[in-house]
Amino acid sequence: MSDATHERPLEEGIERDFSRQMSYGDYLMLDTLLSAQRPLSDPPQHDELLFIIQHQTTELWLKLLVHELRSARRLLASDDLAPALKRLARVKHVQHTITDQWAVLATLTPSEYAEIRPFLATSSGFQSAQYREVEFLLGNKSAEMVKVFGHDPTAQAELTTLLHEPSLYDEFLAFLSRQGYAVPQDCLDRDWSQPYRSHPELVQMFAGVYAAPEQHWGVYETCEELVDVEDNFQEWRFRHLQVVQRTIGHKTGTGGSTGVDFLRRALDLTFFPELYEVRTLIGQ
Description:
single chain, globular, mainly alpha
């Protein structure tokens, strides 16, 4: 008979009494966090908890994305490129995580979703202020979108501020100008509240970077990091579209949009147009 044990005794040094010390739950405020899932379905529907947790965890990751993108923008403004790239590396990992999460929500069948949809009323992910903060930080600005948050003065004020501030890409172009790159002046002195528009001269400037990457390595690397961020964002949009289509087909969204058709049009939006347009010139 084996003397092997399947028990792991607690070590002497492990803390056991948290009556006067901070515990794991205290630090993370788990009482608050885990009490925030409050299904509204009546009678209760098993799958509503999945729907709530999916969107709450996405909002937590969006909070981190906003934090990292703000930091990267600030670092570029102070010409501190290396840590800005570190922030973007983390952004990309978060993007992969929130994209992978769609696979969990995709387990919700149309029949199951139909049981909880009435209890969502007019609430919709379209109304996520943090998602809009991410889009504004990346350059997809919209004054009309700010009006959607009239019911939330704090969120509206934050979006209004971001609307009139340079985006991450704007700060990258300003950084390039300070480093001696030929960035057109009208890319530097413009109305930040307007969506960014592609500039032909800037495409030519980036063509020079891509023609000799070893001479422009930091800039070259940053360009590719930004392309990664946009590719990841588009992948997130596409997975969102797919999950919505398999769950509700072509029904109108709870927030009043046309649903799938509205989401599909977002795939045409771009944050960093010159970084894609330059690819046509490479090797010519």
